[in-house]
Specification:
34% of the residues lie in helices and 22% in strands. A seven-stranded mixed β-sheet has the order 3-2-1-4-5-6-7, with helices on both faces. The protein has two domains: 100 residues, Formyl transferase, N-terminal domain (Rossmann fold); 92 residues, Formyl transferase, N-terminal domain (Rossmann fold, 3-Layer(aba) Sandwich), CATH 3.40.50. It is globular and about 45 Å long. By secondary structure, the chain is α/β, with parallel strands linked by helices. The chain contains six helices and seven strands; from the N terminus they run βαβαβαβαβαββα. Strand 2, helix 2 and strand 3 form a beta-alpha-beta unit.
Length: 197
């Protein structure tokens, strides 16, 4: 049984899917803690599902390195098998990546390497793309350029807004995340083979 720590910055829609999947006794992973870099709405899922939560507000620290050290200390208390960045909108310091790699994965709302960064959905629309997608990657020290472990295409409709497209991508992203963790737990994906760090 894999133990998971999930890090969020927002509402935690991917996290909710993972928590619902793990309610199935056959699913080989359990979320042991939920963390955030701010007072995120998704922390409420901890109370709903009976999962401990922690918050390490970025603004409470003098720099990214100090924030990262405290975040890592909080994560390591739970001794997770896997750490998932699920909408965490902040780059982890290299020391944190090195400590957790390769058991550190991220979801991204684009078909990487297309449209990396914080505005993948907006960038796809601005580029006039006819398709984009969702990806699950192993985190490295770059911006969304770690090894890809799962991805799927999503068509861009002519009348799409950023919200409508992102909603369709999130549906795929959630399914990919649940499946990727299943594949890691079952040994179908070996994260050590996907590590760049």
């Amino acid at each position: 049984m894999l133990s998971l720590v999930v890090l969020i910055s927002g509402g935690g829609s991917n996290l909710r899917s993972l928590l619902e999947a793990s309610e199935d006794a056959e699913y080989p992973a359990r979320v042991v803690a939920i963390g955030a870099d701010r007072d995120a709405d998704g922390l409420a899922l901890g109370e709903e599902f009976g999962i401990p939560t922690f918050s390490v507000p970025f603004t409470s620290f003098p720099d990214r390195a100090a924030w990262g050290d405290e975040l890592l200390a909080q994560i390591e208390q739970w001794k997770p098998d896997l750490v998932i960045l699920s909408g965490l909108m902040r780059l982890l310091p290299p020391r944190v990546v090195a400590a957790l790699s390769p058991n550190l994965i991220n979801t991204h709302p684009a078909y990487l390497p297309e449209f990396p960064g914080a505005h993948g959905v907006r960038d796809a629309l601005a580029a006039g793309a006819t398709q984009t997608g969702a990806s699950i990657i192993v985190v490295d020290n770059g911006v969304d350029d770690g090894p890809i472990i799962a991805q799927e295409r999503v068509a861009v409709n002519s009348d799409d807004t950023e919200t409508s497209l992102h909603d369709r991508i999130k549906t795929v992203e959630r399914r990919l995340l649940v499946q990727a963790i299943l594949d890691i737990a079952n040994g179908h994906v070996n994260l050590k083979e996907h590590s760049n760090v």
